Amino acid sequence: SQAEWERLLTNCSAFLFYGMERFMSHVLLNWLAAVNIPKCRLVILLDLVRSPQSYQRITNSDIHKSCLRIALERPTETAMLLSLAGVGSIIATQWYTNLGENAERLESLFENLLSFGKTTGQTVHAPQE
């Protein structure tokens, strides 16, 4: 529910979204634009996972949205909105992927952040090395 999203984002120091399609399709834009969440120092968005079923669901949902609203759900715009709301750092995917690739990303992120103790910057650049 929207109330649960709001509670989670306003009461955490780090937030992980691991889900299908676009993160912003789950959050009310009006709420995010008006909220101040400086306690949340890190948001990890492992969204943009696409399956035939999720693609159909999001397509049906997008029919009822304006072009501007859909544009605000893109990765760069989502990061900007979260940053304006006070989030300190954002790690996000840029391109659509499948469940297996997303699971590998999550494993790599956790391994680098938690096991190796790398910074978020080092973690983001680790797959490129």
Question: Percent helix among the residues?
Answer: 40-55%
Question: Using only CA atoms, what is the Rg?
Answer: 15 Å
Which spans of ≥5 residues are poorly predicted at pLDDT below 50? none
Helix/strand order, N-terminal first: HEHEHHHEHH
Number of domains: 1
Strand tally is: 3
Number of helices: 7
The outline comes out as: globular
Mean pLDDT: 89
The N- to C-terminal Cα distance equals 39 Å
Fold and architecture overview:
The protein is an alpha/beta fold and 129 residues long. The chain has one domain (2-125). It has seven helices and three strands, in the order H-E-H-E-H-H-H-E-H-H. The protein has helices at 2-10, 29-34, 52-62, 67-72, 75-84, 99-115, 120-125; strands spanning 14-20, 42-49, 89-92. The chain has a three-stranded parallel beta sheet, with helices on both faces. The longest helix has 17 residues, at 99-115. The mean pLDDT is 89.
